Amino acid sequence: MIKPKVLIVGKANVGKSTLFNRIIGEKKSIVHDLPGVTRDFVYGETEWDGVSFTVIDTCGIFENAQSYIEEKQKSLIFQSREEAALILFVVDGRNGLTSEDFYIADNLKRYSNKVILVANKAENYDKFEIEVKPELYSLGFGDIIPVSAEHNRNITELLDEIVNFLVKHELTSFIEDAEQTSEEIIKVAIVGRPNVGKSSLFNSIIGIERALVSEIPGTTRDSIDYEVEIEGQKFSFIDTAGLRKKSTVSYGSIEMFSISRSIRAIERSDVVVLVVDALEGITRQDKSIIGLAEDRGKASVIVFNKWDLVKNKQQKKEEFLSSIDKEFFFVNYSPIVFTSAAKKWGIDELIASIEEANRSRNKRIQTSLLNAALERYIMASPPPIKKGKRIKFYYAAQVGIRPPVFVFYTNLPNDVPKYYQQGLRNMIRNYVDPFIGSPIFLKFKESKPSRKKSDIKGKIQSSKK
After folding, report:
1. 297: annotated binding-site residue?
2. 239 among the known binding-site residues?
3. Per-residue pLDDT for 121 more than 70?
4. pTM of model > 0.70
5. Which of the four pLDDT bands, split at 50, 70 and 90, describes residue 261?
6. Annotated binding-site residue? 10
């Protein structure tokens, strides 16, 4: 069952993101004193009293939008009223109402049967009851729930009201087995430099406009999650802010928090989709970003977006494919997809590549196949001599998945050179399984040969004669 959506709306700087973070129990939305920090929809999952639901944080609504972005934000929020099971209309419980509150109230009147009016920043309860609360009734939504998200006051009462509403209207989605759910859903982080089309690609995949798209670099600030099912497979797509060079980001800035969110999105994903601007080609920053994914053991897919704008497509495609081994040699196992988010080109191929990369990251292989390949590789490329001794490999085994991890038992585990380690990785991909889209990690442990392990050892020794 799809979880009911609880939409948080209100004017700027009334503490919507703080309330969102408090409800879901983690600091997911960016919180800052400046109004208008949140630009995109931010999704979070939570449960209360056995009932699970999705909470959606939104940007502040401005009565008189001063820019294209503010107007677009407002339009997206108002479009979401229909699909929300419940709307939390957040107002300032400390300073009272403004014309923007009445403007928002007018736009919610049609949905008043599913609106809960929440007065945030009401930590001074006596003042709220005497000076502020009577005014709030003029909005026309009945009872008011005073809370202080910052000080964690009355949040449980708000959660009770949310759950009571969902149960009363039969909109509940009870918690499923967590392990089963996590295995079914492929978590995908869409990453890249600013303005390469990540949000447009995100919207093309999920089929509805959720991420704010404009020509202004850095429009996305938060990481945006959205669950979707495609031909029976569930995905959780995460659109992220563009990752810039550290030298261009000032400490304590909103952009710094956005970068932190993007890195966290990579860390909690299964597959990372790196979006490259096909008009600009691969940059040093692209290599840094995909390097983060590989270091953290994530599967990856490389997307060249804006393909509809490229001239001499066949020639350009050959150039990109030939440059992968040079520029992205450390992730040359990643599938390459050419897309146009604007025209929805390549979306099916991208989804297929994501699924293949995820399968590779979860794949296990037989120990016998691995050791047969190791024997074959050592016969062709004998290990080097270190400290006056020949490095010997006795056997190998896969010990982990997500990502695949292989242990090689050897007499000199700390002396296997980098080039030979890479050779062993290539051996696995060439002789056992290509593990398309997934990194593979190697470990080396000290071991002495036993009778059962003597087969590989004996053939290694015979290959040296």
Report:
1. no
2. yes
3. yes
4. no
5. low
6. yes
21 is in an annotated binding site: no
d(CA 372, CA 370): 5
228 is known to lie in a ligand binding site: no
CA–CA distance, 182 with 270 (Å, rounded to integer)? 10
Q: Check whether 132 has a pLDDT greater than 60.
A: yes
**pLDDT at 254 (0 to 100):** 35
Residue 232 assigned as binding residue: no
Look over the chain and give the mean of its residue pLDDT values, rounded to a whole number.
82
Amino acid, res. 149: A
Provide the 3-class DSSP secondary structure of residue 438: coil
Is 418 annotated as contributing to ligand binding? no
pLDDT band at 139; cut points 50, 70, 90:
very high
Residue 411 near residue 389, CB atoms below 8 Å? yes
CB distance 22 to 118 below 8 Å: no
Cα–Cα distance list, 332 to 33, 191, 214, 401 (Å): 43, 18, 32, 20
3's tokens: 């979880």
Beta bridge partners of 311: none
| Residue 57 among known ligand-binding residues | yes
Instruction: Say if CB 244 and CB 273 are below 8 A apart.
Output: no
Closest among 191, 190, 195, 189 to 280, alpha carbons compared? 195
What mean pLDDT is predicted for residues 21-47?
65
Q: Sorting pLDDT into bands at 50, 70 and 90, what band is 433? A: very high
State yes or no: 120 annotated in a binding site.
Answer: yes
Give the span between the Cα atoms of 421 and 398, in whole angstroms.
Answer: 15
Q: Hey, what's the torsion of the CAs at 273, 277, 280, 286, to 10 degrees?
A: -20
Spatial distance between the Cα atoms of 353 and 342, rounded to a whole number of angstroms: 20
- What is residue 303's three-state secondary structure? strand
At 263 the pLDDT is 78
Domains of the chain: 5-174 (3.40.50.300), 178-361 (3.40.50.300), 367-464 (3.30.300.20)
Task: Please check if 11 is assigned to a binding site.
Answer: yes
15 is in an annotated binding site: yes
Per-residue pLDDT of 213-237, as tens digits, reads 434 343 444 456 778 888 888 898 8
Helix (H, G, I), strand (E, B) or coil at 365: coil
Structure tokens, 306: 């804006």
DSSP code, position 245: P
Residue 241 among known ligand-binding residues:
yes
Say whether 437 counts as a known binding-site residue.
no
Q: Reduce the DSSP state of residue 8 to 3 states and report it.
A: strand
Residue 251 pLDDT exceeds 70: no
Do residues 273 and 336 make contact, with C-beta atoms less than 8 angstroms apart?
no
Which structure tokens are listed for 284? 């040093």
Query: Going by C-beta distance under 8 Å and a sequence separation of 6 or more, which residues neighbour residue 75?
Result: none
Token pair, residue 89, equals: 């209309």
Q: Which amino acid is at 18?
A: T
